């Protein structure tokens, strides 16, 4: 099993595996951490050619970068490594706000390099836009990291079209990471056209709708200890909204069964069909699910199948906001 590559960005291009691996859930958010399984999954991902790895300093907090660093030891030259700064957390996990100041960026980058055990980061994202710091100031500080050789490419996460334009005018932005799936298509309205105009790649996170598009989710499966989907932070997974969304997801499962693939593979194939500049980063900490996801890269959909899937999950039918508090999302 191997996987093709895609290019993010045109002004400052980065070649990565057509599917990446989101590492967040190995350390936090979706139940008890499982670093051993995560380690094995990352190593197997590299064996399969999934070399675009996504982490952040706030995952864990801090321990996810350490896990990724251990897993890529001795194989650094195979990896396109992405991490993020900007959502501050304390050692106990407490949220301390968003910070896009130059002083914080420099310190955060050095700390990430140390935890990852590398001398450079391939793609360094601002995790969330700081409304108190002009984006020009933030990206200016990020560009200094490029000049210093600590970072190769710059990215933004959950940034609006206007913010992306302003940032790109300071230094080429290679990729923008945002939530995008059959269940979340807001990016198509404003952000994706701007990315295409400027030659910036799109990296969809939660491309499987936080698990609902895998066909394995039930009401009970999101009620476990440590699973943030069971909290008010994620309205789509609460009460009647979850029941509605599971019904919608069942339509994807039905189409997948007819196609002879899993619903998760079909959802990823739909995203890959949105353009060669789109590189989803499905997250998993299990080798079996990694292999299932990778197989989606070889699943070619016809235009008719893409249209059928799009119609099967109407944007207006999805119940609930993607976050309970959308204030950190740049608009």
Automatic annotation (TrEMBL):
Q: Where is the signal peptide?
A: none
According to the UniProt entry, what is the EC number of this protein? 1.1.1.-
Q: Where is coiled-coil annotated?
A: none
Domain NADP-dependent oxidoreductase per the UniProt entry, residue ranges: 19-312
Q: Which Pfam families does the entry mention?
A: Aldo_ket_red
InterPro entries, per this entry?
A: Aldo-Keto_reductase, NAD(P)_OxRdtase_dom_sf, NADP_OxRdtase_dom
An MF annotation (GO) of this entry = oxidoreductase activity
Which named protein is this? General stress protein 69
Entry keywords, A to Z: Oxidoreductase
Q: Which organism is it from?
A: Microbacterium hydrocarbonoxydans
Checking PANTHER family in the record gives: AFLATOXIN B1 ALDEHYDE REDUCTASE, ALDO-KETO REDUCTASE YAKC [NADP(+)]
GO-annotated cellular components: cytoplasm
Q: What class of enzyme is it?
A: oxidoreductase
